[in-house]
Design goal:
Elements: E1 3-6, E2 8-10, E3 14-24, E4 27-35, H1 41-45, H2 53-56, H3 65-80, H4 86-112, H5 127-134, H6 140-160, E5 169-170, E6 173-174, H7 180-202, H8 206-210, H9 215-223, H10 225-228, H11 231-241, E7 253-256, E8 259-261, E9 275-277, E10 280-283, E11 288-290, E12 297-300, E13 312-313, E14 336-339, H12 348-354, H13 358-367, H14 371-397, E15 416-424, E16 427-436, E17 439-446, H15 448-452, H16 464-469, H17 481-489, E18 493-500, E19 507-509
Helix pairs in contact: 4-6, 4-14, 6-7, 7-14, 12-14, 14-17
Amino acid sequence: MSRVTLDIDLNRVEGDLEFQVDLEGKRIVDARCIGTLYRGFEQLLIGRAPKDSLVITPRVCGICGTAHLYTAVLALEHLGRIPVPPQATLIRNLCLMAENVQSDLRQTFLFFTPDFVHPRYAGHPLAAEIAAAFTPLKGRTVLGCLAASRKILEIVAIFGGQWPHSSYMLPGGVTRGANARDLVDCADLVDQVSHWFAEEVLGDDLEAWLALDSADAFFAWLDEPRHAASALGLFCSVARSVGLQAIGAGAEYFLSGGACHDPARWQPPYGEQKTLLAAGLYDGRQHRLESFDPGLIEEHVRHSWYRPYPGGRHPFAGETVPDHQPDSDRYTWAKAPRYGGKVIETGPLAELLAGGDRLLASLLAAEGPSAWLRQFARLRRAATALRLMRQHVADLGRHLKEPHFLPPADDALEDGEGFGLVAAARGMLGHWVQVRDGRISRYQIVTPTAWNASPKDSDGRHGHWEQSVIGLELADPDDPLELGHIVRSHDPCLVCTVHFASRDKRFRYGV
């Protein structure tokens, strides 16, 4: 059978990416994730003062600036063994969760669900309900999402003055502590968004929905008319009716560096991830959680446009030296991160599986990973974060009279190395920094999309995203809607747009 390579432009995602897919008939038999944009943030930082990373790295992403700032400051605190007061950790967590909630809501209702308005689904029994809820810039849920996501970001503005690209975290704490008025404002913002989420997205009480702990309990919940009529119910009904629970599986190993640093335990020497939601590698085949070891992280460049080195390297030994080789079997500016040699998935599903979410573990065991479960987990995480945010505001009230900043020693950042990990909107984000004589000598960033959208590694193993589409049968190769569902379920972040590209055919896909 002859092989054809599709070249498809896809929008409603974050970033610059080409994705080559080879077809035999209508079946995808190979895929290559191609990062087309070299940015060089790691090289920009070499030779600079350590604190420059707090201003430069939030510019890596216009969606995840808080996450990059938090990760950068954690790396410096690890390097200098700098203590952090609980009030600062609570404020940092609160702002990061606000950023993640806005991202999860916007990705779901501005990027993912608009595909259900596609002409292929015009004859769907729920077509009228889909249009009323999910039509871009007009649907009821879409308009509510825009208002709610703007509202939750006001929490970042309270402490950071602006969003994105804030710079209010620094080694030893935050630039501004909380006061009583902040608590009232933050509590009100969380309550407003939680109320909208419960009424519009869930059609149920937030705590009652979070109490669902098994696949059977969830599907029984979904059968109730008021739940089925909610945005979540509509999303699940449509997605499952078109088979999204059966496509896009991928790697079946799920990695999280932990979510929400524990304000009571987050202190030097920072040898382990002391987080409220546990770190770990969740084995989706054996359905068990393995302990997390950041020493097992490595990056491969065998199929990337960087100066070659053998095998994989830990970020502390890594390098980012561009070496464009367009006429070779190297095909991307992205590296290939691996964990203990394993291809992994990171993101909301991994974060909650490691954190002990029994409903997601039950759904994974019942049906396996899929585009539907990955997207469902994003809304599950938003609900989990809103509950944690409410708790954080209450906890912050007990620390108002305590310091928000502990000045580090003058020489704390002169020499050493450190790393930071946070649960960003799209999964585990890591920064690794080394400082010599008061200047950055090495800086490495491993983003969530680097894990998910990685190329083949030194052993020829496809990255998770590539694996998730290989074997997929397209109903119509000229209109590869299934690919759009799988790609968007990962919430890729590569700056502006995503392409599926090759020399043979070119399609533009997305509205």
